[in-house]
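Chapter summary example: a protein plus magnesium ion.
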Amino acid sequence: MLQFQSMTALKDAVKVVSFDVEGTMVTTDFSYAIWFEMIPQRYAQRYGLAIEEAIRKIRKEYDSVGDQRLEWYDVQYWFTRFDLGRADIAMEELQNRVNYYPDTKDVLEKLGKRYKLSVASGSPRPFLKHLLRDVEHKFSSIFSSTSDFKKVKTADFYREICSRLGVEADQVVHIGDNKQFDFLEPATVGIRAFHLDREGKSGNAAALRNLAQLADLLDGR
Ligand SMILES: [Mg+2]
């Protein structure tokens, strides 16, 4: 934070505040419930297996694809592969597993009065549809790196979203919980990036501990 000459300068320069989604505004409960509860349960039912056996098999299947391939992130791909029917209907059933962190809605309300708000997420759109249901009206743009750009959140992704937002990188603040994808990559292109470490376990002393701290920096006196 010492990089900014003064907080007034920061507030004057910034036009857009960009947020990661999972681990930043919303917990990972919904995704966990899909990958490690719903899919294994349906798989167990479909093939007449005990749940532990289903989880073991499914983890193996997930590993065989791996997180570098886009299929990994595609729920319908797995539903089709396992013959489980329609993922969108199943996901709707888990809407009540979407949990916002306690500071999220207040911070969006506060910062939305002063800045344009934007989403830069690695989650695919079928997830964002559920994860952002209560707050999407607060955002002027929503970008999914995997759905819209077929990539993880690289420097290129951030460059592209600045261009789509019609702003310079240094007019954008981004915050997220993944040190590489939310801090190092956006910082590379000149975005004013903040690493969010809610648990305080990253060892990064400069990380923010919650979104309210960001609101204080951007909207405090
Ligand atoms: Mg995240």
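Key point: The chain is about 45% helix and 10% strand.
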